[in-house]
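Example S7 (structure tokens).
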């Protein structure tokens, strides 16, 4: 009965022994991977560090998983870093690095009040943990708890030459937070003097010159010295790029931004800086807008909740004429609370192009519209049935300088508004001003002629319409109204020529039915009945409710002996106007002749 258990035992024990041996061997292997990964991280070899930390984590090392979080921190991928540090804490609840990492993520997200308990826990678990002490001190500074921060940071100055300059820098930051520039400068300078080979000290002094005093020229040498000490650090290179940018050394800044992005394509601040510099170069060289797209698109993929990136990308799309994409990006930026006057001005233009009138006006109100934008706003007010506001803008533009192209446009629009409001005298006066500024303005001549027509000033109307037709001979409406005025003046040949040119340019518009009707009438009077019928048939095709055209068509058919078609035309006229005398007379004559 005991044979089964006894025979099974020799097989189970080797398996358990092997598993234990593998677990034992995995520990030093994981530790070695962590050690190598930290060295790679220190030297900026992030891909290699990630692989080594990941290998250690897969071997069960909580330090390896926390190391993965550190790499994500270096790449500013905070969500991924947070996930890694939380996992590390679950793997080893006593691992100080797991608490520090979570606190550091919160710190970088601007959530220092939430970060402090985690950072305090990290410091409790490891009383000599420089990163944790530094993060705690900086969070206390951020919350203006300077008196609490100083002892935390001061202890770090006693942790040897590697860490002392870094904590001196942090103490300088604490003094800076309470506006003690002199004390801050003392700490920064002391850090540099004690550790001239430490890039952190050189960068801190550069940051002080750039951010506290706004002197890019003084910051750049410090950043350059830091990069010379550690040329592989992406963040140092980025700081140098920023310093060069603010020192207005744009070509040198561009070179550094490119280096940063090439070295670490997922370093979001570098992508934003590069895209921003390309964007700002766009007015001088429009090709730079196209260069800006790739880094900015990459940035919003990495930082989708940063409205600055969406704003820059949307404005870039706008200048590349990618309007639909621009609207989406800028609306995203606005939803995230981002935006500047340029962004809202561009949104106003885009909404106007989409005929989103109310949105356009709202966006312009938050922007800084140019004179040209104000003209767009005035047109929008017209569409929105607010002519008084449009009038106010147009007058303001003209008042600034009536000789500019924008002022001429505003004057012309004022003339149109008066014309549409049936103020023909005011319209004529305004159009004359436009012509005084631009003697070749065809539209001003055209509407001036129509205004004179309504004012019953035929000679002036004819003169203005002649000018309009001469300046733009390929516009049918100019010839049409010129022909109408000639017809009213009984200038038959001139009217015929103008109307013929009108229908030659446009034979399909309903208004051209009038031109065909008048041409048919001239042919009818001249007894060119075939031509008359052709013109009049076209007239009723374009406007089947034209009573007079049906009557004249009936007369043309009657004069050619086509009794059936004549009766049909007269009856169509009477259907529209039962009391039309010429149609009644025509039918009576045709029916009387038939009875005889």
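Recovered sequence:
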């Amino acid at each position: 009965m005991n044979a089964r258990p006894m025979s099974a035992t020799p097989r189970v024990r080797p398996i358990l022994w092997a598993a234990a041996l593998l677990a034992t061997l995995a520990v030093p292997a994981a530790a070695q991977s962590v050690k190598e990964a930290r060295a790679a991280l220190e030297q900026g070899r992030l891909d290699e560090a990630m692989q080594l930390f990941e290998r250690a984590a897969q071997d069960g090392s909580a330090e390896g998983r926390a190391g993965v979080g550190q790499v994500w921190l270096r790449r500013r991928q905070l969500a991924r870093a947070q996930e890694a540090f939380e996992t590390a804490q679950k793997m080893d609840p006593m691992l100080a690095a797991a608490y520090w990492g979570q606190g550091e993520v919160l710190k970088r997200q601007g959530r220092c009040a939430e970060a402090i308990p985690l950072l305090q826990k990290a410091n409790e678990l490891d009383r000599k943990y420089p990163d944790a002490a530094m993060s705690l001190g900086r969070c206390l500074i951020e919350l203006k708890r300077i008196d609490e921060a100083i002892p935390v940071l001061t202890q770090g100055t006693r942790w040897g030459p590697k860490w002392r300059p870094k904590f001196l820098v942090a103490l300088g930051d604490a003094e800076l937070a309470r506006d003690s520039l002199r004390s801050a400068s003392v700490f920064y300078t002391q850090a540099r003097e004690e550790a001239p080979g430490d890039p952190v000290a050189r960068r801190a002094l550069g940051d002080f010159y750039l951010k506290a005093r706004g002197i890019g020229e003084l910051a750049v040498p410090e950043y350059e010295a830091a990069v010379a000490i550690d040329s592989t650090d992406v963040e140092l290179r980025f700081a140098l790029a920023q310093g060069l940018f603010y020192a207005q050394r744009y070509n040198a800044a561009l070179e550094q931004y490119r280096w940063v992005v090439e070295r670490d394509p997922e370093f979001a601040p570098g992508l934003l800086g590069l895209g921003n510099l390309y964007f700002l170069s766009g007015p001088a060289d429009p090709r730079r807008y196209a260069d800006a797209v790739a880094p900015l698109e990459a940035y919003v993929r990495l930082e989708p909740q940063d409205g600055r990136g969406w704003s820059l990308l949307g404005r870039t799309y706008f200048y590349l004429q990618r309007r639909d994409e621009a609207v989406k990006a800028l609306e995203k930026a606005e939803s995230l609370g981002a935006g500047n006057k340029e962004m809202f001005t561009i949104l106003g233009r885009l909404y106007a192009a989409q005929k989103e009138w109310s949105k356009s006006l709202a966006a312009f109100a938050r922007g800084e519209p140019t004179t040209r934008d104000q003209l767009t706003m005035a047109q929008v007010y017209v569409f929105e049935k607010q002519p008084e506001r449009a009038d106010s803008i147009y007058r303001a533009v003209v008042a600034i300088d009536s000789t500019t192209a924008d002022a001429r446009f505003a004057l012309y629009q004022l003339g149109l508004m008066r014309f549409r409001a049936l103020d023909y005298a005011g319209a004529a006066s305004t159009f004359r001003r436009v012509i005084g500024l631009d003697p070749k303005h065809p539209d001003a001549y055209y509407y001036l002629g129509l205004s004179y027509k309504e004012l019953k000033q035929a000679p002036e109307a004819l003169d203005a319409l002649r000018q309009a037709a001469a300046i733009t001979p390929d516009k049918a409406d100019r010839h049409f109204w010129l022909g109408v005025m000639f017809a009213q003046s009984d200038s038959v040949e001139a009217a015929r020529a103008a109307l013929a040119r009108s229908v030659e340019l446009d034979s399909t518009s309903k208004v051209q039915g009038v031109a065909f009707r008048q041409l048919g009438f001239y042919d009818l009077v001249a007894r060119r009945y075939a031509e008359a019928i052709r013109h009049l048939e076209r007239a009723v095709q374009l406007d089947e409710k034209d009573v007079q055209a049906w009557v004249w068509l009936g007369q043309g058919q009657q004069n050619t002996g086509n009794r059936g078609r004549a009766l049909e035309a007269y009856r169509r006229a009477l259907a529209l106007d039962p009391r039309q005398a010429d149609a009644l007379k025509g039918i009576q004559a045709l029916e009387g002749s038939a009875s005889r």
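Notes on this example. The chain has 33 helices and no strands.
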